[in-house]
Amino acid sequence: MRRGLIWSAAGLAAVAAAGLFVTRAVPDETDGLAALTGDVANGEVVFIASGCASCHAADDAEGDAKRVLTGGHRLASDFGTFVAPNISMDATHGIGDWTLDDFATALRAGVSPDGQHYYPAFPYASYAGMTDQDVVDLWAFMQTLPADATPSAPHDIGFPFNIRRAVGVWKTLYLNDDWVVTDVPSPELERGRYLVEVLAHCGECHTPRDALGGLDRAAWMAGAPNPSGRGTIPALTPDELTWSAADVAYYLETGFTPDFDSAGGSMADVVTNFAQLSASDRQAVAAYIKALPR
Question: Which positions fall inside the Cytochrome c domain (predicted)?
């Protein structure tokens, strides 16, 4: 009986150790960052393409106020409501006391400076594919933005989803930097893939999710329920979206569809961002969309 208890205790200890290993917070690989010099101008492009202000500026912000990343935007989901934090340069309530390594680890690994998991409402699963140079450039641009002392609001999520350690299991299942579309035979398609799959994180809304909230990559860009519970996010696959590449590029610039409708809701923010990018970037996204399978 004593031997059985010993083996049982050993088994429980092994299970606990495995659980701690799987759920640990793993930092980003940052060894190459220190050798790079940040380009503020490109960092601004990365900031705009990534939609940082769309979540982290105050909901009523306009003009220059959209560069004050005070947080507060609420993101509804099946797991609760997540609230975007203050990521301004305030050292107390924002990220002003972070290092470049802290920033890269948050952005690409979803881990805070104190070693806690961020919830994947922060689209680090997409940003995981961001290049070292773009990370450094974005950080250089962030240094130019104003500080704001507004405290971050807490998330509104209940048990068991409020157990941050469990996010490590989610990351084991879903966090990687693999491309969804692997065949990109031209520089334009390569740029479009990077914009769609990484910076603009389009798949986070336009791709359905499984029961654990992971993207169903087998149904990439096939449309999904709106997390707010109102309607659906449309499919962008060629069998559903019949627009030409020129139509897509024009929509990203102006918000107007070929049917004379206009972008609304969160897509209006996306158009605001893409309208500030180059025409070649909008064309690259359109080319990628038209090259999707199905």
Answer: 38-146, 187-293
Write the CATH number for 272: 1.10.760
Does residue 109 contact residue 124 with C-beta atoms inside 8 Å?
A: yes
| Cβ contact 95:88 at 8 Å | yes
Position with higher pLDDT, 203 vs 8: 203
75's enclosing H/E stretch is strand 74-77
The CA–CA distances, whole Å, from 30 to 103, 114, 127, 133, 176 equal: 10, 16, 14, 11, 16
Verify that 139 and 209 share a domain, yes or no. no
Radius of gyration of the chain (CA): 20
Q: Do 97 and 161 lie in a common domain? A: yes
* pLDDT reading at 267 higher than 50: yes
Read off the amino acid at residue 3: R
Range of the domain at 105: 29-174
Residue partners of 95: CB distance under 8 A and separation at least 6: 87, 88, 89, 102, 103, 106, 142
pLDDT confidence of 21, banded at 50, 70, 90? very low
Same domain, 50 and 98: yes
Residue 70 and residue 138 share a domain: yes
